[in-house]
TrEMBL record:
Protein name: MaoC-like protein
Domain MaoC-like per the UniProt entry, residue ranges: 12-123
An example molecular function term from Gene Ontology annotations: enoyl-CoA hydratase activity
InterPro entries: HotDog_dom_sf, MaoC-like_dom, NodN-like
The organism of origin for this protein: Segatella buccae ATCC 33574
Matching Pfam families: MaoC_dehydratas
EC number: 4.2.1.17
Length: 154
């Protein structure tokens, strides 16, 4: 995976409608799921009770929280793109987000990103990114939607 380097609004705008990149695969193991459950106070058995999940879950395994999958977006995004000359970057919104299928513990996920829209708002770059978080070996993505970021260039 080669990280895309952007230095200005104009450089970013040149990718409108194009794929920006694909992240590396990231394993989603039980330890990561347990830590997320602890951090979010969401210890639902489908996520943390391995033995019960083997017996009662339709997946025959624990699964990642949907919001855990979503929370990995910034980490995966930073593998795809590096934006220089910034004062700051701010999450602006999420649109048309859909959880397509569960991430079974032990799966690997990755991010595929495309620049859907870009606007210069008096020096602030608003970038809307079509994203898909794929599960290795699966046709249907775990999560897809549009993430919008504000980039404050120097």
């Amino acid at each position: 995976m080669q990280q895309l380097v952007i230095n200005s609004y104009d450089e970013f705008a040149a990718y409108l409608g194009k794929e920006l990149g694909v992240s590396d695969w990231l394993p989603v193991d039980q330890e990561r799921i347990n830590k997320f459950a602890d951090a979010t106070l969401d210890p639902q058995w489908i996520h943390v009770d391995v033995e019960r999940a083997k017996r009662e879950s339709p997946y025959k395994s624990t699964i990642a929280h949907g919001y855990l999958t979503l929370s990995l977006l910034p980490y995966l995004w930073n593998q795809i793109i590096k934006v220089n000359n910034l004062e700051m970057m701010v999450n602006y919104g999420m649109d048309q987000m859909k959880f397509g299928q569960a991430v079974v513990t032990g799966s690997r996920i990755r991010l595929v990103a495309k620049l859907k829209d870009i606007t210069n708002l008096r020096g602030i770059c608003r970038a809307a990114i079509d994203f898909k978080i794929e599960i290795e070996g699966q046709r249907k993505p775990a999560l897809q939607g549009i993430a919008t970021f504000l980039y404050y260039f120097k």
